[in-house]
């Protein structure tokens, strides 16, 4: 059993331009820690989608990444509007993003399904008017 | 195709990453929707796009892409170039439209999906 390695980031909801900074840093850290390109890619894509979501849908939040012996865990929490219908939100193509978000290259309704696809475990805790917490894990052993 | 040839075929100006121009790429994708790039790209090494913001660079970095071609003479900001440099990505700009750039590169052998849509070795 190794000591878990943890990283914490505040994700600024005001600044679309800086969205994804944490994912870029995590990608670098995981490389330094010697993970395989496939694992690094899955973690960083899932985290990046989640980071972008917090910025465009929830006015920012926090990202916590923990590297454990058997998996890498990503926890994204925000105090945004919450997701009223999680099943609907998980569908490919479902998006509440408006035209201004689409003009920035996002809002195709692919993020949450993509996060599910790239991770081995994903759980969404959300309450309308309170916020959303998404926990994802990517297994690092066999 | 060598990354350098992408620049040549598209009459593109290389804005950063000159040290990687010798690298080989096999397939590319073209999109202004980063959502779709994140969802559908597999091993395509090159992104051709008319969208200009920092998320284009981060999306390419997340997908392990090695070259971005901005079409229609779009000019990326200093901040975007610095980020691309940090991520080891070659950035170019071309006056061509996306359709033309894609057509030229495809006809020169840069396919859409490695070993999938086109058989390169019949
Ligand atoms: N953190 C969040 N807080 C509140 N709502 C969210 C959050 N994340 C996602 N949603 C809701 O779920 C919908 C689907 O999210 P998803 O990431 O799949 O698509 P998108 O962000 O709209 O578009 P894309 O991810 O393709 O750019 C969003 O449009 C939004 O309504
Ligand atoms: Mg999204």
Assign the CATH superfamily of chain A. Answer: Histidine kinase-like ATPase, C-terminal domain
Percent of residues of chain B in beta strands? 15-25%
Work out the radius of gyration of chain A. 15 Å
The CATH topology assignment of chain A is Heat Shock Protein 90
CATH architecture of chain A: 2-Layer Sandwich
Give the key terms.
heterodimer, A: 142 residues, alpha+beta, Heat Shock Protein 90, 5-stranded antiparallel β-sheet, 5 strands, 28% strand, B: 122 residues, alpha/beta, Udp-n-acetylmuramoylalanyl-d-glutamate--2,6- Diaminopimelate Ligase, Chain: A, domain 1, 5 helices, disordered C terminus, binds adenosine-5'-triphosphate, binds magnesium ion
Question: Can you walk through the features of this model?
Answer:
The complex is a heterodimer of chains A (142) and B (122). With 142 residues, chain A is α+β, with helices and mostly antiparallel strands. In chain A, 35% of the residues lie in helices and 28% in strands. Chain A has 5 helices and 5 strands. Chain A has a 5-stranded antiparallel β-sheet, with helices on one face. By secondary structure, chain B is of the alpha/beta class. Chain B has one domain: Udp-n-acetylmuramoylalanyl-d-glutamate--2,6- Diaminopimelate Ligase, Chain: A, domain 1, CATH 3.40.1390.20. Chain B is 35% helix and 16% strand. In chain B, strands 1-5-4-3-2 form a 5-stranded mixed β-sheet, with helices on both faces. Bound molecules: adenosine-5'-triphosphate and magnesium ion (MG). Residues 49, 53-54, 57-58, 78, 80-81, 83, 89, 94-97, 106-112, 132 of chain A line the site of adenosine-5'-triphosphate (ATP).
């Amino acid at each position: 059993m190794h000591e878990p390695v943890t990283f914490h980031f505040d994700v600024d909801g005001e600044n679309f331009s800086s969205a994804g900074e944490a994912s870029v840093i995590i990608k670098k850290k995981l490389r330094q820690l010697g993970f395989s390109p496939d694992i690094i890619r899955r973690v960083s894509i899932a985290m990046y989608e989640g980071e972008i979501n917090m910025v465009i849908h929830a006015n920012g939040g926090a990202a916590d990444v923990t590297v454990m012996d058997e998996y890498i865990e990503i926890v994204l929490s925000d105090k945004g509007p919450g997701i009223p219908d999680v099943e609907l939100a998980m569908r490919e193509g479902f998006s509440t993003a408006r035209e201004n978000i689409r003009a920035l290259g996002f809002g195709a309704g692919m993020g949450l399904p993509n996060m599910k696809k790239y991770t081995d475990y994903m759980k969404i805790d959300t309450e309308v008017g309170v916020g959303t917490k998404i926990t994802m894990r990517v297994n690092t052993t066999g | 195709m060598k990354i350098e040839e992408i620049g040549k075929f598209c009459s593109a100006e290389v804005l950063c990453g000159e040290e990687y121009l010798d690298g080989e790429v096999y397939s590319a994708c073209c999109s202004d929707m980063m959502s779709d790039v994140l969802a559908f790209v597999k091993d395509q090494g090159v992104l051709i796009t008319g969208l200009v913001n920092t998320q284009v660079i981060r999306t390419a970095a997340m997908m392990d892409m090695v070259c971005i071609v901005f079409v229609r003479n779009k000019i990326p900001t200093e901040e975007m170039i610095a980020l691309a440099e940090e991520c080891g990505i070659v950035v170019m700009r071309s006056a061509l439209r996306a359709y033309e750039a894609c057509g030229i590169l495809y006809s020169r052998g840069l396919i859409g999906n490695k070993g999938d849509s086109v058989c390169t070795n019949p």
